Hints:
It is a single chain. The chain has a 3-stranded antiparallel beta sheet. The chain is an alpha+beta fold and 112 residues long. It is elongated and about 75 Å long. The longest helix has 37 residues, at 75-111. Helices cover 71% and strands 12% of the residues. It has one domain: Orthogonal Bundle (Arc Repressor Mutant, subunit A). It has helices spanning 3-13, 16-28, 33-37, 44-56, 75-111, and strands at residues 31-32, 60-65, 68-73.
Amino acid sequence: MTEAIDDELWSAVGDPTRRRILDLLLAGGGGTATTLSDRLPVTRQAVAKHLGVLDRVGLVHGTPSGRERRYDVDEAQLARAVAQLTSVGATWDARLDRIKRISEAIQRRRQG
């Protein structure tokens, strides 16, 4: 993925409503804007807009289902997002560990 796509991806999953939609889609094996809005404190129209954002970044794919679209999670794209998040987490863990070691060294010098 390119950096621009990553920015869009993280912007998309940064929204708590969209994360909840992903959770519901994963738990329920897919759904429509109507079925999802029944389980969320937002309107069907708001859910449809959120699904559009998730679709644009490739986390979900919609297929026609009667008068609506049925959305399913793209598990490969979700796995890539999780892998990136894990990598970012590991990088920050290493940075924070380094800061801790520097702080401890400063403390030892002040005490000794």
